[in-house]
Amino acid sequence: MGSVAQVMAQTLKAYDTKHFFLLTGGDQDLWIALRDADIQMVLARSERSAAYMADAYARLTRKPAFTYGQFGPGAAVMVGGIVDPYWAGAPVIVITSSSNTMTRYKSEYQELDQKPLFQPITKMNVELPRPDRAAEILRSAIRAAVTGNPGPVHIDVPMDVFGADAGDPPIYAEPRFAQYPPMRPSPNQDDIEKACKLLVEADRPVAVAGMGVVASQAWDELTELSESLGLPVATTMGGKGSIAETHSNSVGIVGR
């Protein structure tokens, strides 16, 4: 048997999580569990900074990244750092503590209804409903963060629940969702042939590459297509890197 914090840390370990970005608060059960799981806690100057660090880490490694904010002001400050990964489609998993269940609705210091703050900028926004569901909820959050259009998710954990007995749930990872995108749908072959025909027959075709090319790591294929057809390639801001900026066929950024 283990605590909620231990179960969450061991689940992160199963996903080969090496770094956790945060400004520590009063949730010592979580810090001890992360330390015991040999997950490096990377300290930031603020919760917002920790979110930015997780955002960058997710984009560079193509893996879900994890960050934390303490209940009340810590969680509120975290919100500002989650907006950009929401726009950019980066799978940042935000874990916040929330006020103690034993003193909730008694005007406890720093008590705040946090879930509504995260609702517009997350794909999944939940409070841990029971200690024995900690591992399950964390796996669901990771799955939601990396699938479809990737993006941030938020799990609220009451501060007194981190140390609660989580029972003896199975600890495992779903390897497919340890990176993103976990799968890419294949286009219909007829659609591919139609697109190729349009490109070949066009007088002055131009490709506009977006985040999908970067997410699929298809920059070599796009460059080869550009060179074989003499095709200029413009990018969105999120599509930067789809083709080398120094390539003779690179047009540069044309939109957001």
Number of helices: 9
Runs with pLDDT <50, length 5+? Answer: none
Q: Please bin the fraction of helical residues.
A: 25-40%
What structural class is derived from the secondary structure elements?
alpha/beta
Shape: elongated
Beta strand count? 9
- Mean of residue pLDDT values: 94
Spatial strand sequence of the major β-sheet: 2-1-3-4-6-5
Beta-strand share of residues: 15-25%
Radius of gyration, in Å, reads 21 Å
Largest sheet: 6 strands, parallel
**End-to-end Cα distance:** 49 Å
Order of helices and strands: HEHEHEHEHEHEHEHHEE
List keywords for this structure.
single chain, 256 residues, alpha/beta, 6-stranded parallel β-sheet, 3-stranded parallel β-sheet, elongated
Task: Describe the overall structure.
The protein is an alpha/beta fold and 256 residues long. The protein has nine helices and nine strands. It has helices at residues 4-14, 28-36, 47-61, 73-88, 115-118, 134-146, 189-201, 211-215, 219-229, and strands at 19-22, 40-43, 65-69, 92-98, 124-127, 153-158, 207-209, 233-236, 250-255. The strands form two sheets. A six-stranded parallel β-sheet has the order 2-1-3-4-6-5, sandwiched between helices. It has a three-stranded parallel β-sheet with strand order 7-8-9. The longest helix is centred in the N-terminal third of the chain and has 16 residues, at 73-88. The protein starts with a helix and ends with a strand.
